[in-house]
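Shipment paperwork, digital attachment
Item: protein structure file
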Amino acid sequence: MRHIWWGAILSLLLAAPVFARDIYVNNLAGNDAKDGLAASSVDAETGPVRTIRRALRHAETSDRIVLANTGEPYRESISLVGRHSGVPYAPFEIVGNGAILDGSLPVPADAWEFSRGEIFRFQPPHLSAAQQLFRDGLPLTRGPGPTLEGRLPPLAPLHWRYFDGAIEFRPEKDHLPMSYDLTYAALPVGITLYQVKYVTISDLTVQGFRLDGINAHDSAFAVRLIGITARGNGRSGISIGGSSQVEIEGSLVGNNGAAQVRTEGWSHTKIINSTLLDNTAPPLVKTEHSEVQELTVK
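Attachment content:
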């Protein structure tokens, strides 16, 4: 009888409604002093917040973070941990609405130094061989590094490489680096997921981060990445590690530095109707124990 009683209580708890909220973010019209509970400003307290980070501080189980696509990238690095989780019938969500999360920063014009020949160099504040250099927001071609004999091959115009702790760049003839709109991968990771479950991130571009666009670091279970574009990140577009379980659906991953998607540890990854480009790095890099299933669903 006691088992039946406890079973009935458990069923009621599982069926109990989750009072989830929509928390709105607008990086142009928002204000982090507001509560995020309206898409536009209502009064001094109610209206969208300005940063995703502030929205995550307000958020609880099964809430939705709704981004306004203002045409201006969100320039921040965010982490989902612990309470940023959902339940099977009500996941915690980040709804991108086509917005861009960007980790790049402009290369200061006075940071360029002449190196040799037609090569200029710039030393980023954080030394990392996992880097990217962008022109007008698009990744430039990475040139060859030193050979096994220690010889440094020439760079073609508008190509770059990471060498001796600096980004080397060769501009076009009769041009200087500061004549271009050049940015570099400054922030480490776009979205980190750690010890969360039932999370959905959709319709978002994640680009320009020094390591990974999205990193399911460990114990990120029942995570769905839907309609994600992960491009131009220094190491990988999407990285899945530890014991995480992630689905990548209807997404485009390319122009990343070492791998488009990388998996490690004892992770489980399902890739559904997605395109992993084979341009700047292998489409998939996995360790021995990680499991990857690729599906095309018609």
